[in-house]
Amino acid sequence: MKYILVSGGVISGIGKGVIASSLGMLLKACGLRVTSIKIDPYLNIDAGTFSPYEHGEVFVLDDGGEVDLDLGNYERFLDVTLHRDNNITTGKIYQHVIQKERKGDYLGKTVQVVPHITDAIQEWVERVAKVSVDGDHKEPEVCIIELGGTVGDIEGMPFVEAFRQFQFKKKKENFCSIHVSLVPQPKATGEQKTKPTQASVRELRGLGIAPDLILCRSQTRLSDGIREKLSMFCHVSPEQVICVHDCTSVYRVPLLLAEQSMIPILRDQLKLQFRQRPNKILSRWRDLAERYDGATKEVTIALVGKYTKLEDSYISVMKALYHAGMHCRTRVHIKRIEADDLEPETQRTDPVRYYEAHQALCCADGILVPGGFGPRGGEGKILAAKWARENKKPYLGVCLGLQVAVIEFARNVLGWKDANSEENEKTSHNVIVEMPEHNTGHMGGTMRLGQRPTLFKTDKSVLRTLYGNPTKVEERHRHRYEVNPTMVEDFEKHGMKFVGHSEDGERMEIMELQDHPYMVGVQYHPEYLTRPMKPSAPYLGLVLASINRLQSYISKGCRMSPRSSFSDVESSDTEEEMAALLDSSGNLSLTDSPQVKQEL
Q1: Within 10 Å of residue 265's Cβ, how many Cβ atoms?
Q2: Alpha-carbon 553 to chain mean position
Q3: Could you say which of 216, 399, 475, 479 is catalytic?
Q4: Which of 185, 219, 260, 389 has its CA 20 to 30 A from that of 553?
Q5: Of 57, 143, 525, 558, which is the active-site residue?
Q6: For the chain, which domains are there?
Q7: Rounded to whole angstroms, how far apart are CA atoms 450 and 61?
Q8: pTM to 2 decimals?
């Protein structure tokens, strides 16, 4: 097993997750089996109880694990299925050690951070690194570990100490330390500053870990002088200083790293044996980046939510829209609208904000209401669903977005004026009810979580067509409330059809409104399984309907992706063919052959 540790310095949110994902994508493009681990030093057991304003969205895995959003980056870039143990928190480690102490596993010894906590961290990493994530039950060969936070944070110290020990345990040829740091460029002088990176590397070396590579985040490309200065003061060669400057999209980051010899550097550092040429996958990523940057058509989607002030709160939702847009060669503009701003109370207190929100909603080509919890902003979301239904605007409701569409329909079509969700208030028409088996009195891990099957009950379904006409689909869930099954018959009589059910037939999973261009609601979260080269079907349908191409797309056979997934690439290149990939200076060459030129 080869291990790559990615740490960060100077500031948090520097892009370690995207960089770690990009490194994994490059190695997987060379035929290696790659897994990822994200370490979050906070004391929470998992991310399930966080407000989205704390750490962004809560990402849900197949096994129901509620984890950091960076695991979403790993899954999208690597096209793998991770598990809850791929996310390590301080809370999980301490809980594990304390449970062992209570059982007497330490034989009366004094339990301490060193060696018990640090040993537990190392054992956890070694165990999880061997778990298959490709669905083929084969053990991974490379494990990329992202250490959250910044070097020097007090809560991260046990993890740094654990990896200081770990590097000697695994030997030099099996362990690579990559440090991601910031090279700021003040506007006053325009000069790139190296002092923050020098200080961060010095801190890391003082803790016993000498970085093998330094990846510098900057606004513009590093000059040769800056690269040499960092090399001199950070004890690495100039070739080990890699520039990761701001790009037009995250899809260009793997290409940027490949252009700076990252593949041969990792190969030599870790003594890796590649199985295939990365050209084919890299050329497809280049095409992906060009689609994102070069789209000439535009569409505006209104995202009506309650955490819209922070982009990371809906990062998977936004990625799903972008993936669908790239598939349609259309640039998606997302207009984030705070649901509160659409409500009458805002009209009284801040009429300017109220009218701006309504103008943005009315001018959008499509409307998306994502998941959420609590009554705040609920009436604004209901108004957005009402506007979409009455004005034939394409609408996608995800989780809570499905529920507000059902509430709106009950109030304004069925005439149940007191229709509401039990989450908000008890009425005579609670069309949304709590699932009793999940009412445990605890917040963390008590919802309906993880991958569950949805069975289609009819052939006349636009989503079934977009999915490729399967009898069932498996998507990830995260909710406590559901459509009241005793009232479904009333809805279906008036044109709101529940075309997808759970296996027992009791839970309404997919809603489609008749005589509407695209008004769809899903109880699950399809954004968790979107991939850059295979967009999520409900989101693709929303974008297609918003650009008036849904019916023509369906009539042409609904081919979901012009390319297959990463794992479908076949190659058995020899060492001589692999060597031919690299030019005389060891850089990756993507244009060595007429075949590759044609692909590009």
Answers
A1: 18
A2: 27
A3: 399
A4: 389
A5: 525
A6: 2-287 (3.40.50.300), 296-555 (3.40.50.880)
A7: 6
A8: 0.89
